[in-house]
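Subgroup meeting minutes
Present: P.N., E.W., G.H.
Scribe: E.W.

1. P.N. recapped why we're keeping a running log of single-chain structure predictions: easier to compare across weeks, and new members can see raw inputs and outputs side by side.
2. G.H. added today's entry (167 aa).
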Amino acid sequence: LYEAATDGSARRKLLTAPGAASFIRFSPDGNHMRFTVGDSFTTNSSLWEAHRLTNHLKIYFPQILDWFEHLDSELVCALLERWPTLEQLQKVPPAKLRTFFRKHRCRDQELIERRILAIRQAIPAIRDRAVIEAKGLGVKPLHTHCMNLPKRSQTSLFTVHEGQLNP
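Output recorded in log:
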């Protein structure tokens, strides 16, 4: 899927779908999009939702996608608010991270320790400062938007997911 000006200029790839995408709709704020992906072999369709936060993070901070199941959680939004890059997160002392996780209702000590170890061992996906800073700045308004949503609206807004439609 690409985004472009009405005259076809300024084309920019948004994502690659595993089939033909149709019925594409953007949210009013432009931060998430839903579309149907058709499978030409089985004639099944799937409903997909994508959010720009995931796309930004995949480029410069993909590890966070593995460390947290829900990017729209209060915990992840607060973490990105304080430490929007892997480099910044790796500078935080483990004791401060433990306190942060507990403060944000993560009580599973094993999970906290696994996350801290993963943070320490992570290798940056990219080292280009310009890209990191630009993507980090792009993430700030997206996760701030997440923090301001009512809890019932946050479900799955920041993940790319697939849901089966009528086969």
